């Protein structure tokens, strides 16, 4: 018996370094993305570095909860999710650690990353106004602010104020114009609604295509999804819709990010940083962005043919961290204005 105990102990000692090595070679990604191109993205990283990827997929809130529940022993190395608001929430929950990387600092535009390095944007979506080409853009509409003007009564189709995209968008208006003007704007938008806020971005596009309202507020990639849809009706809708990038004459169109950060308790911190560096490379950028019809964040990666067909646009350079910080106030303002 005694001998067997000794043997077991010896085996355990020998096994430990091997287990450690195996762990070093596997990076755990907790991701709320689920796109076909991601597989290719991860395989290419493994080919380049020898580091395997273990993918845990769930929605953003579930991933956050899981990392917190796992505590200091969490295997999570990298958290990938959409929207600066969600990344900031993860940061506030103490789930992410700040990192510095010369590659990321030089590759990712400053407005698309946390100034302290808790998270970095790896693709961009723009919040735009979509309209039916056949009906054209109503005259006088060029800015988000215009959506509140009385001549656009009954035309605006949008999601509810509690949605994270609506909140980020309103936060960008708040940053530009201050609380009083933003509340007046929100009241004007509510007065111009074609129906009570409901559904997702695609529902706004479908409503406008069906003649309910003229102006759909949507992220760019939802039009990309319709254009790629296997259903001919969806592709027909995508072809009918045109895109206005608002505020091109001033601050630029509001954008938000898909992004990632290194988990505070990451067992493989170095490999995690290497993975983020890799995500900022031109090839990885195209794969990451195309997975969801989004724009790459680096200048040397081209957007997809679909996005190029929408033309170039000027982005609001407001820092994504500032957007997140203004979000609670933006929501309160919309609620005061009666935006459901
Ligand atoms: Fe979305």
Sheet with the most strands, sense and barrel status: 10 strands, mixed
Q: So what's the CATH class of the largest domain?
A: Alpha Beta
Give the CATH architecture of the largest domain. Answer: 3-Layer(aba) Sandwich
Indicate the radius of gyration in whole angstroms: 23 Å
* N-to-C SSE string, H for helix and E for strand: HEHEHEHEHEEHHHEHHEEHHEHH
N-to-C CA distance:
71 Å
Helix content: 40-55%
Fraction in beta strands: 15-25%
Describe the overall structure.
This protein has 340 residues and is of the alpha/beta class. It has two domains: 3-122 and 257-309, Periplasmic binding protein-like II (D-Maltodextrin-Binding Protein, domain 2, 3-Layer(aba) Sandwich), CATH 3.40.190.10; 125-254 and 316-336, 3-Layer(aba) Sandwich (D-Maltodextrin-Binding Protein, domain 2). The protein is 47% helix and 16% strand. It has 14 helices and ten strands. Strands 1, 2, 3, 4, 5, 6, 7, 8, 9 and 10 form a ten-stranded mixed sheet that branches. Helix 2 links the parallel strand 1 and strand 2 (52-57). Helix 2 packs antiparallel against helix 12 and helix 6 packs across helix 14 (320-336). The N and C termini lie far apart (71 Å). Mean pLDDT is 92; it is low at 1-23. Bound molecules: fe (ii) ion (FE2).
Using brief descriptors, characterize the structure shown.
14 helices, 2 domains, D-Maltodextrin-Binding Protein, domain 2, binds fe (ii) ion, disordered N terminus, 47% helix, alpha/beta, 340 residues, 16% strand, ten-stranded mixed sheet
């Amino acid at each position: 018996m005694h001998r067997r105990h000794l043997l077991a102990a010896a085996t355990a000692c020998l096994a430990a370094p091997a287990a450690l090595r195996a762990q070093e070679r596997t990076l755990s990604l907790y991701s709320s993305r689920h796109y076909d191109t991601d597989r290719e993205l991860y395989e290419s990283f493994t080919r380049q570095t020898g580091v395997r990827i273990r993918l845990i997929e769930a929605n953003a809130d579930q991933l956050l909860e899981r990392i917190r529940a796992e505590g200091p022993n969490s295997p999570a190395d990298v958290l990938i999710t959409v929207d600066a608001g969600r990344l900031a929430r993860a940061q506030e929950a103490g789930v992410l650690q700040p990192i510095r990387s010369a590659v990321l600092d030089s590759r990712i535009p400053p407005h698309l990353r946390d100034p302290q390095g808790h998270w970095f944007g790896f693709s961009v979506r723009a919040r735009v106004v979509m309209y039916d080409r056949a009906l054209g853009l109503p005259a006088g509409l060029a800015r988000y602010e215009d959506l509140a003007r009385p001549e656009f009564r009954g035309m605006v189709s949008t999601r509810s104020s509690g949605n994270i995209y609506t909140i980020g968008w309103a936060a960008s208006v708040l940053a530009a114009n201050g609380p009083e003007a933003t509340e007046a704007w929100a009241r004007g938008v509510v007065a111009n609604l074609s129906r009570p806020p409901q559904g997702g971005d695609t529902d706004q596009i479908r409503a406008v295509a069906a003649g309910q309202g003229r102006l759909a507020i949507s992220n760019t990639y939802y039009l990309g999804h319709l254009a790629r849809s296997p259903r001919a009706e969806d592709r027909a809708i995508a072809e009918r819709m045109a895109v206005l990038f608002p505020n091109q004459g001033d601050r630029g169109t509001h954008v938000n990010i898909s992004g990632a950060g290194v988990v505070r308790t990451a067992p493989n911190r170095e490999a995690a940083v290497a993975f983020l560096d890799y995500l900022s490379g031109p090839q990885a950028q195209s794969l990451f962005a195309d997975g969801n019809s989004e724009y790459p964040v680096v200048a040397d990666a081209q957007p997809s043919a679909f996005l190029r067909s929408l033309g170039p646009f000027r982005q609001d350079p407001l820092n994504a961290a500032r957007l997140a910080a203004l979000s609670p106030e933006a929501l309160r303002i919309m609620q005061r204005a009666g935006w459901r």
